[in-house]
Amino acid sequence: MKKHLLLIFIFTSLFASAQFTKSAPWMVDLVSKKSESLTIQEMNYSFNEYWKNHDKNLKGSGYKPFMRWDYHWQNLADNQGYIITPQELWTAFNQKNAFKNNKSRRAFSLPASDWQPVGPFTITGTGSWSTGQGRVSVVYVDPSNANTIYIGTPAGGIWKSTTAGTNWLPLADNLPQIGVSGIAVDPNNSDIIYIATGDADASDSYSIGVLKSIDGGTTWNTTGLAFNNTNSYAGDILINPNDSSMIWVGTTNGIYKSINGGTTFLLVQSGDFSQGRIRLKPNNPTIVYAVSKNRFFKSTNSGSNFSIVTNGMPSTSGRLIMDVTAANAEVLYILSSDSNSGFQGLYKSINSGVSFVKTANTADVFESNQSWYDLALAVSQTNENEIYTGCLNIWKSTNGGVSFVKRNSWNAPTSPKYTHADIHYLKFFGDKLYCGSDGGVFMSSNGSTSFTNLTASAQIGQFYKIAVSKQSASKMVGGLQDNGGHAYSDNQWKNYYGADGMDTAIDPNNSSKFYGFIQNGTSLYVSNNAGASNGGGIGSPNGASGNWVTPLKSNSIGEIYSGFSDLFKITNGAWVQVNTNPFGQGNIDLIAIDPSNDNIIYVVINASLFKSTDKGINFDLVYDAPANISSIAVHTTDSSIVYLTTKGTSGEALKSIDGGLTFLSINAGLPNIGKNVIVHQGRNSVNPLYLGTSLGVYYRDDSMSQWEPFDTNLPNVSINDLDINLEDKKITAATYGRGIWQSNIVLELAAVDIKIQQITSPSTVLIDCTNSVTPKITLKNDGLNTVNTITINYSINTNNYVYVWNSSLTANAVANIVLPAAILAKGVYVLTVECIAPNDNILSNNTASSNFFLNDSGTPNVVNTFENPADDLIAYDDSGFASTWKRGICTTGVVNSGSNNIYTTNLTGNYPDVRKSFLVSQCYNLTQMTNPLIKFKMAYDLEENWDLVYVEYSVNNGQVWYNLGQMGTNWYNSDRNPNTTGTDCTNCLGGQWTGSNTTLTEYSYDLFQLAGFNNIIFRIVFHSDDAVNGLGVVIDDFVIESAPLGLINYDLSKIGIYPNPSKNIFKVALGEVVPKFIEVYDIAGKVIISQKDFKIIGNETQLDLTNASSGIYFVKIA
Questions:
Q1: 769 and 679 together in one domain
Q2: Does residue 805 form part of some domain?
């Protein structure tokens, strides 16, 4: 308790409210005109005025950081618009702890909470163009132990690794909403650590000044630097290596110095240094350099006082950053932005900061106008001319800043140089360069030839929303700040799309179908395989812009709704407006669909609650809340009961028992903090409620008169979203800074409850080359009684079937049921299953659905002209919606097909954006063919390098697909990929068609390397990005044929390879052949050896495959 009492004492003098980063361009004039505290409304007005004349859609424009801040803090403002002070937050924190520890007052038994972390700890990029895990603001390596590394995050506290970054441990979970922007470790005592609290770059969390630990970060205490103005932030911390009791700290108010290890601090230089840097002259700690927002300062007396140096420096700057080098103590560099936060120049001093010269570089190393948010500079400690800058990406100079070369790209996540976008921190520790970015922490030990991602095990994700599968609590999808959509399945997190991930949804009957918005709802990304790939997406209706977090909801049958200025639903892969009369009040903030009645839909706009009883066609205004509404939930089984929370520190929790017409407060026990989300739990007669707040989760049920903390093991962090899975008895919390957490909840078991656990067959991935399907399902008895009869109604598209299962299924037992086989034609199918048991009144877990494909065999040498319905191929989009590929007559597309039918990406105009669509061939047996060849006619008009088409093949029914071939004559026209050839080809594979060839041209590719497969499928893949489109692709006259033989017939029995298999040297028996060349291909069709000079002895030669990986290879002799 000593730590908490000390914090209460320190903060009793705080009075002002927080504001956004002062260096943001729209804040500069506002701050200069009004010195006192600003309201959130004033900051919003200034922000909106600024963007009237600026392009918010440019990457790195600075628009998104403010929107993140606004979304986070708008629920923490009082009635006048002033944001909660740290004093108020800490008071609420201590009241919560005291309330929780006073167990003697309880006259009830509170259900036990036991929150456990779910992640993300490590991630796999499966479709994101900017894979990342969470923002890192600062990195620090212990001067006494290079294996001990600390990172500071904007809302997830400080983390420590003692294994050089391979594992991380959180050190601030017992402190509320702690961000960290500066770290320093005593060079003479590794147990002493100082942290500058808060988020100096984007104000995602408050600064309470500097905290100190004397036990390696296990516990923390305040120091003499505790702000009495909540507009203040702390940044860089520097310790004198010769006298570790001497410390300097850069803050919004100036540079503070301590000579007694932080017991007291003295302001030695005024100015805004919160985002600047403080550095000591190498080997001379009496000389201290510092940069404020727009000035360079130098001290020659250990920082007791400073002088401004202007010689050679720009007269005005938007932000400065600085570094020195041990390679030459006289040299220092300063990186400057202009007043618009764009690149201004790099300034170099060779005389210990007496004067500066602007370097000759003119390249825009910022590539953006958001240096107020992220800006970094590092100089090698062994080479004074080796410099690195960071803003959007990392750039490098090897000639002292005369010129720079771009080292990486934010949208090339598979590149070995990748570090995500938005570089906040760069610094050398020894010979290693560390980077903190919006995606995590990275390290290079080879001059930026490659970076190692060290973020694994650091659970620092800032989640906006989370959706959990109704079938399994181990399947979920959520949206993260600047790190896109993260899907969780099979104990693995998959980052399947980029940007800012926002609201998400999962099909209630298909736990592998995930949906996720990006900011403002401009694109909805869909995955049909639980995030294993990005299936493309849907643009917003007519280019509309929704709220920063645009609401997204699924009803009980999987229909997807969203809220823009009106209510929309996905119909045939596009948004269609549902309500007939416009709301006319701005964008929809929230949507709630009654879990027990899909016809009842609520939408919220500001403080107004609208209700529809006809599935969204007509709405009535039913309630005006006392403040803007922050969340809404409908009772899981009683449509008359509705719950609301309202925004602001004075916001309330409310309950209606008349379908939303009137509400009463149920606020008792809740502190004056943000109330973000309320959810109701079913299958429990006392009606448990859970409330996510700025300080964790609270619980209440019908047996209680007030809310109680429900937060055992849960970090003290803001809870943005909650979701409940009744099947696994779990509640899931999405935090803003500490990732995803889950706790068990208490359910009352029903007498009878049969649920479908899984459709195990047919596979949603494989393309079966037969004409039949045998459905298989797994059922579980979640009730108390034994069940002896289950009726299973299932349909395959429009064909309906009934199967009665008569057996004994005891409580908690599982049954694997094989349903009768169905004979079907080639096509794309949906299997829907419903199980019915007598007296089973829990219907929410009785249905499931799954997509699958059936193919048939193709006849070699027969051209498919697509003229008849029998010529239809399997065509589908990765999103699961109607296929972009269409068969028909094309009159206004890339070519005029006249009266002939073709396949095209759009029969009547340009193709859609954000699509990945597949046109699948029949199944072919190549073992009976001589010199097999794939051939088809194609014309295309695509956005060059951004949109593309290519051919893949599979030899295992679609389980794995390989790109067919490479750029060459009569095949692909591009070999670009995002790792080696630029960032405008993010979808490229290294072999594809892109650009334009509007003449219907025959393309062919030799399949000799695949001649040994008896069941092979090809598919033509069309892939478009999220902007700019063209006329698309036309395909005609597809055939797998035998190519003509040459004039010489060889005795093939004398040609062979042995030993086979082998690890290194293979002998090739040539018989009568005298080859011109021999090529070896891997299974993906890539040439790994091309040999023209070889020694032939006794009709044999050798191939050396020592460096080849284990696998299957094909040899071509010609």
A1: no
A2: yes
Is residue 978 domain-shared with residue 1068, that is, in the same domain?
no
H-type helices in 926-984, by residue range? Answer: none
The answer to whether the peptide bond before residue 1059 is cis (omega within 30 degrees of 0) is yes
With bands split at pLDDT 50, 70 and 90, how would you rate the model's confidence at 603?
A: very high
Question: Which tokens belong to 722?
Answer: 């909650």
Packing angle of the helix pair 25-33, 40-51 (nearest 10 deg): 130
- Residues 760, 739, single domain; the answer is no
The DSSP call for residue 13 is: G
* 995 closest CA partner among 978, 979, 977, 972: 972
Specify whether 469 is located in the same domain as 362.
no
**Closest to 1116 (Cα-Cα) out of 1082, 1072, 1065:** 1082
Q: Domain end: 1042, 1075, 1105, which one? A: 1042
Domain count along the chain: 5
CB atoms within 10 A of CB 382: 12
Please tell me whether residues 913 and 1028 are part of one structural domain. yes
Please count the other Cβ atoms lying within 10 Å of the Cβ belonging to residue 49: 12
User: 463, 205 in Cβ contact below 8 A?
Assistant: no
pLDDT bucket at 1094, cuts 50 / 70 / 90: low
CA 372-300-426 angle, to 5 degrees, is 30
Identify the three-state secondary structure at position 517.
Answer: strand
646 occurs within a structural domain: yes
Q: Do 1026 and 882 share a structural domain?
A: yes
pLDDT at 10: 38
Q: Which secondary-structure segment (H or E) carries 428?
A: strand 423-429
Could you tell me the pLDDT band of residue 4, with boundaries at 50, 70 and 90? Answer: very low
**Residue 45 token pair:** 């007005």
Q: Is the pLDDT of residue 1117 over 80?
A: no
Q: What are phi and psi of 67, to 5 degrees?
A: -65, -35
CB 735 within 8 A of CB 715: yes
% helix, strand, coil for the chain, step of 5? 5, 40, 55
In a domain, 906, yes or no: yes
The verdict on residue 911 lying in a domain is: yes
3-state DSSP call for residue 1118? coil
Angle, vertex CA 819, rays to CA 816 and CA 820, nearest 5:
150
Residue 130: name the closest of 914, 978, 1029 by CA. Answer: 978
Alpha carbon distances (Å) from 44 to 81, 178, 888: 11, 25, 51
CA–CA distance, 96 with 146 (Å, rounded to integer): 39
Q: At 1107, which CATH number?
A: 2.60.40
Q: Which two tokens stand for residue 419?
A: 């570090």
Same domain, 640 and 494: yes
Residue 5: the pLDDT is: 33
SS3 800: strand
The two three-digit tokens of residue 703, written as one number: 């047996």
In a shared domain, residues 943 and 1091: no
| Higher pLDDT, residue 1058 or 142 | 142
Tokens of 978: 């995002």
Residues 591 and 600: beta-carbon distance below 8 Å: no
Task: Please tell me the distance from the alpha carbon of residue 475 to that of residue 1104, in angstroms, as a whole number.
Answer: 46
CB-CB contact of 210 with 197 (8 Å): yes
Residue 1011 sits in which domain range? 869-1042
Whole-angstrom distance, CA of residue 716 vs CA of residue 735: 10
As a whole number of angstroms, the longest Cα–Cα distance in the chain is 98
pLDDT above 80 (res 391):
yes
CA angle 1026, 1029, 1034 (to 5 degrees): 120
- Residues β-bridged to residue 767: 853
Last residue of a domain, one of 1000, 1022, 1042: 1042
